[in-house]
Amino acid sequence: MKTWLRELPKVELHLHIEGSLEPELMFALAARNHIELPYASIEEVKAAYDFSDLQSFLDLYYLGMRVLRTEQDFFDLAMAYFERAHEEGVVHVELSFDPQAHLGRGVELAIPFEGLRRAMREAEQRFGMSTALIMSFLRDRDASEAMTVLEKASPWYEVIDAVGLDSAEVGNPPAKFAAVFERARALGIPRVAHAGEEGPAAYISEALDVLDICRVDHGVACLQDEALVERLRNSQIPLTVCPLSNVRLKVVETMVDHPLPAMLEKGVKVTLNSDDPAYFGGGMLDNYVACFDAFGWDQRVFKQLAGNAIDVAFMSDARRRELVERLAEC
Ligand SMILES: Nc1ncnc2[nH]cnc12
Ligand SMILES: [Zn+2]
């Protein structure tokens, strides 16, 4: 099954590129940029990745990304990820990045945009991989700051496939960003948002109502609200679920307790994703394999999940048709 899962054409819709920073590259970039890390060794970094909740992860996530300073750093980060993803049979990646976490350290917008875009072009040429770019806002910072970033990003509007919303969820409801998302809508930029990861089902409904999003990132809390489940089933609005992330951040206790089977059973359009693979013990293939180990799903279920992601990805119609055909041949 693992060989078959590797060959399955997988589409990744929920990946924080800064969360793909492996400890080895973190050390190499720290040395290149003369940045001191609070870790003595790679083993020490890995030992620190024992999280109690989302915030305990975010603290180390923002700390680790301080090594990213130049366009070349962002290129190297993304290219290393694309190489690993390609080896795992990932054919399309939608990477999100957090510009505010870089601007706050004096790293101007052009640096991540240009470094990531160059890596995306190279992955398309070298691996035949398609890619999309999501610019995310930090919900635990003021909405006015997000609005300023959106305006400053005007030179790149053509290459932004969507805007997103991430970081500490509880206490930062979607409505806080109503004006920012309204501005993105007016600019014709699609919208996605994390909702119902640690926060309640009400945040998912609010993100749909107020932010007019086309996808929900995580959304595992939806099962708390039957009417919302019904809405998600009827609308077929997709959820980008990240099972290994949910276990590592203690959203669920173990893989066996994960609500994915119940979500599928209720007809919610779910997809499998890795979130922050360097921090949560694996990439796309590991997430697929973990689901096989926990739920014993057959090939039909995995084809449905991969097909859901192809249906809702930001990609050309021609590319979508090509991937639908490849999936059918599996
Ligand atoms: N799992 C996650 N939830 C919210 N914000 C994030 N930023 C990076 N990973 C995240
Ligand atoms: Zn995420």
Automatic annotation (TrEMBL):
Kindly identify the residues recorded as the active site: E197
Please name the top-level EC class of this enzyme: hydrolase
Arranged from A to Z, the UniProt key words for this protein are: Hydrolase, Metal-binding, Nucleotide metabolism, Zinc
Q: Where is this site: Important for catalytic activity?
A: H218
What reaction gets catalysed by this protein? adenine + H2O + H(+) = hypoxanthine + NH4(+)
Q: For this UniProt entry, which residues form the secretion signal?
A: none
Q: How is the cofactor bound?
A: Binds 1 zinc ion per subunit.
Q: Which residues bind Zn(2+)?
A: H14, H16, H194, D275
Q: What InterPro entries is this protein classified in? A: A_deaminase_dom, ADE, Ado/ade_deaminase, Metal_Hydrolase
Annotated substrate binding lies at D276
Q: Where does the record place the Adenosine deaminase domain?
A: 9-329
State its Enzyme Commission number(s): 3.5.4.2
Q: What does this chain do? A: Catalyzes the hydrolytic deamination of adenine to hypoxanthine. Plays an important role in the purine salvage pathway and in nitrogen catabolism.
Classification via NCBIfam families = aden_deam, PRK09358.1-6
Task: Indicate what this protein is called per its UniProt record.
Answer: Adenine deaminase
